[in-house]
Amino acid sequence: xxxxxxxxxxxxxxxxxxxxxxxxxxxxxxxxxxxxxxxxxxxxxxxxxxxxxxxxxxxxxxxxxxxxxxxxxxxxxxxxxxxxxxxxxxxxxxxxxxxxxxxxxxxxxxxxxxxxxxxxxxxxxxxxxxxxxxxxxxxxxxxxxxxxxxxxxxxxxxxxxxxxxxxxxxxxxxxxxxxxxxxxxxxxxxxxxxxxxxxxxxxxxxxxxxxxxxxxxxxxxxxxxxxxxxxxxxxxxxxxxxxxxxxxxxxxxxxxxxxxxxxxxxxxxxxxxxxxxxxxxxxxxxxxxxxxxxxxxxxxxxxxxxxxxxxxxxxxxxxxxxxxxxxxxxxxxxxxxxxxxxxxxxxxxxxxxx
Amino acid sequence: xxxxxxxxxxxxxxxxxxxxxxxxxxxxxxxxxxxxxxxxxxxxxxxxxxxxxxxxxxxxxxxxxxxxxxxxxxxxxxxxxxxxxxxxxxxxxxxxxxxxxxxxxxxxxxxxxxxxxxxxxxxxxxxxxxxxxxxxxxxxxxxxxxxxxxxxxxxxxxxxxxxxxxxxxxxxxxxxxxxxxxxxxxxxxxxxxxxxxxxxxxxxxxxxxxxxxxxxxxxxxxxxxxxxxxxxxxxxxxxxxxxxxxxxxxxxxxxxxxxxxxxxxxxxxxxxxxxxxxxxxxxxxxxxxxxxxxxxxxxxxxxxxxxxxxxxxxxxxxxxxxxxxxxxxxxxxxxxxxxxxxxxxxxxxxxxxxxxxxxxxxxxxxxxxxxxxxxxxxxxxxxxxxxxxxxxxxxxxxxxxxxxxxxxxxxxxxxxxxxxxxxxxxxxxxxxxxxxxxxxxxxxxxxxxxxxxxxxxxxxx
Lengths: 354, 461
Fold this sequence. Notes:
Radius of gyration of chain B: 23 Å
Number of strands of chain A: 8
Radius of gyration of chain A: 27 Å
Number of strands of chain B: 5
Number of helices of chain B: 23
Shape of chain B: globular
Number of helices of chain A: 14
Helix content of chain B: 55-70%
Structural class of chain A: alpha/beta
Shape of chain A: elongated
Largest sheet of chain B: 3 strands, antiparallel
Structural class of chain B: mainly alpha
Strand content of chain B: under 5%
Oligomer: heterodimer
Order of helices and strands of chain A: HEEEEEEEEHHHHHHHHHHHHH
Strand order of the largest sheet of chain B: 1-5-2
């Protein structure tokens, strides 16, 4: 064999064997070892039907930094980590990566999740970070019991009770408990106009409507439906019209605009429920059950704040509503509930914002 | 003006070029380079990101390579790509048991005889139609793309075990078929300097091979070459010819199209298929009909079957049918002086310049628009988050989008003029009377103009 032929065969060997072995060996063999040494966890993000996150569970130790490197492998994904960490890495284009280094100061469980609607099963795209105490690596803090949900269960409230809009028209003012006579309710849940917090604010400011003190408390509002508040206002203001009092309830149930809550809603809820709560998000066509209309006062007047809170945190049994309790803190969840009320009672605000 | 006056022998003007092409390392070095790129294409296709625009395999094959091939290589260098294409290389090296040096007196194969009825372009025609039918899948899914290319290389090796020489390139390769057809337009040709020298030469080393090189891998006798269609520009004959009778010429583009005696129905259909595919791709991929793209993209089996049926009917029946009618009109206007079948086949070659122009125009539309993806995938070929050359985050930047329409128009008009000129020459080959030739020209010119207007409407409308 001539020298030139030998060189050519060596080049061929490099191309056919060394090139693949080198590239794949680096990516799948050497790189993970180097990353582990540097405390880097490489997580590839695929759409859920292709497997979701390549690493579903990450172990971390209190006080030791861990770097998570998310690489989007197929479509645009968004990465956030919660609850309570306030980490949102934003959208990650295919082939791109984002890194974040975390140092935890106490044991617990956190969730990294996709925030961009990447597929019909987008909400399943989650992974868990388990943070352990180096002093007691085998001891893992038990999942915390949510007192709000516990209280609802103790009250006998069925969080998953289906709201039958026909039944609403026929009578039940609350989907979750207190019943009222059909005649009373039929009038209560019919509105000639969309209740408005802005109009309600003006009414209250000019003292046109008497508001019982307990209705102003946050605790009362979270544990009662707007329909029950409407009843109370009818009793206290017998001369006022139904729509006027509904505006007053809208005012009581509406908090100041919250951009953070709006961002959380848009990232996690709008795909199904729609940007303005009209159940017209692109994913609403793919859900097994009807998507709830937050823009519908007839429905929202039957809903308790704590039940909305529980549905968000625990998910809706028998529906496609995922659980968000592992992603958001209780405060973040309450902010989200307040945002839902604003979709019903402060629609002009959202439309104007847009 | 005789042929010699219209050609320029590059070997005479550039002796260094002849010396380089005569070395045995010239072709293998290029093949090893393209094989390295091909290996990377396969690896990125199989292991890289499934997102086409981020995958080296998709971008470098279907934008960079395709753009180079159809916009530059084929129009200007004919079949040069076939000389450096890595797909048949492993099979050829196995046959030769060598990459560079000439070791064995004979090729190592099972020496089977390639079926006589397949010694034409029909396999390439149907192979191209098969690939084209699934093109929206193959061109966008890196894994599928890699498997198809891998399948080609495996097929090349398997055929090289059974048959001598480059049977895969000559009779099977779906790409080689249209490169051969369109290379007739190229201004570059490999021919013999003096055909009489070849006729008188008894040993025919260019066919049998000698110590300097192998017999023509494309199974072509250079002494008879009149067209580029089946010459792969491998330059073995340049090495083996003891008479130094091989020339690499520059010539007026399209000269091969007047070679009347070699026109065949399989090549005619290749010209129909290529033009139809350019038209269908322009409609499906660049047109405003998203539903049609969805059909081609297999959004449902029923829709795809409807698309496939329409696609095949357009390629095999509709467009050939329109040209048959055109040929029949010319036949009548020529007072039936020429056999209709002959006219149908011959006039189909008028579609060669137009088809190439249509493909160039179509390719300009996406190569210039999407070429900048090449910078990203060079730095991050697998989409694994690498940044080898610092260009992984390069922004998608369409190149000169404001002039693409002008370029497409210019190319299409040039293609039309070239085609009409070809039609005129073909008509004059059949009838001596220029007035009759002019009458024969009218139907085909009208059809060619209508096709050009259809492309212009698609690109500019």
